[in-house]
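During the second half of the funding period, the structural biology subgroup turned its attention to how the target accommodates small molecules. The most pressing case was flavin-adenine dinucleotide, which had performed well in the primary screen but for which no bound structure existed. We therefore specified the complex as follows and requested a full 3D prediction, including the ligand pose.
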Amino acid sequence: MVPTHTLIWTAGVVASPLIATLGAETVRGRLAVTSRMDLPGHDGVFALGDAAAVPDETKGQEGAVCPPTAQHAMRQGKAVADNVIARLRGQAMRPYAHKDLGLVVDLGGTDAVSKPLGVELHGLPAQLVARGYHWGALRTGVAKARVLTNWTLNAVAGDDFVRTGFQARRPAKLKDFEYTDTYLTPEQVRAQVESGRPGAG
Ligand SMILES: Cc1cc2nc3c(=O)[nH]c(=O)nc-3n(C[C@H](O)[C@H](O)[C@H](O)COP(=O)(O)OP(=O)(O)OC[C@H]3O[C@@H](n4cnc5c(N)ncnc54)[C@H](O)[C@@H]3O)c2cc1C
């Protein structure tokens, strides 16, 4: 552990390198989909979340796309599911639009900042809002119980410390954590399909 008074940690969000291998139009590495999240020129293909540059209809400015956040990814998942069903039924697909109602940032312990509906909060009130929001967003009872237990234990026993590569000699990349350079080429996929052995290496 390096003793320090101030620690500033930042991490960006990028689309998976897989996107660049698909031969489709991209916007800063994300698939250039329509506001209905289908991919022009690729019939029946939809994309969402970090992988897609979904036009932000609420901004009213040309070229604006939804930021890569979980807020959008989760809502876009539901919207894409509805659009896939609509398309299969021959009905009209609906454009995605969501206006954020605020932001929450959990900085650990009682440190947090929140801005629900434009009200600026910090410290414990902000943490209650942040954790309440994140807890409510968890999909299963097991996940809720696990997270609540963890928060309670941390409140009593102190936060866990996580070392994030202080000793690393080079900056970590996405491919260090995921097998992002092991995709099959279109030719390899075709050969596997033709040989009737999908999934074989
Ligand atoms: C440090 C950090 C903090 C963040 N904090 C916030 C926050 O506070 N609030 C917020 O709203 N958003 C936050 N985000 C952004 C948020 O995590 C993402 O926008 C969101 O997870 C996007 O969801 P997704 O489903 O599009 O992609 P992901 O959640 O990245 O899911 C993609 C999945 O695909 C898998 N995958 C990749 N390649 C392959 C492959 N070839 N085969 C099979 N599976 C594959 C990946 O393992 C992953 O599980 C944060 C991101 C980071 C990195």
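Two results from this model are relevant to the next phase. The first strand starts at residue 26 and ends at 27. DSSP finds five helices and five strands in the chain.
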